[in-house]
């Protein structure tokens, strides 16, 4: 569980990627549906 581990939050921060362990800050189901409908 270090910087090279892509399944950990620290690894995602190190690479600058997002996923299950590091979701985007204000991303929820309601806002996703609104964006899909527009």
Automatic annotation (TrEMBL):
Protein name, UniProt field: 30S ribosomal protein THX
Keyword Transmembrane: no
Family note: Belongs to the bacterial ribosomal protein bTHX family.
Keywords (A to Z) from UniProt: Ribonucleoprotein, Ribosomal protein
Any single Gene Ontology cellular-component annotation: ribosome
InterPro entries, sorted: Ribosomal_bTHX (IPR031414), Ribosomal_bTHX/bTHXc/bTHXm (IPR030826)
Keyword hit for Membrane: no
Pfam families, A to Z: Thx
Region (Disordered): 1-38
UniProt superkingdom: Bacteria
Species, as recorded: Echinicola arenosa
Signal sequence extent: none
């Amino acid at each position: 569980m270090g910087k090279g581990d892509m399944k950990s939050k620290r690894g995602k921060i190190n690479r600058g990627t997002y996923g299950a362990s590091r979701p985007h800050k204000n991303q929820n189901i309601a806002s996703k549906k609104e964006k899909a409908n527009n």
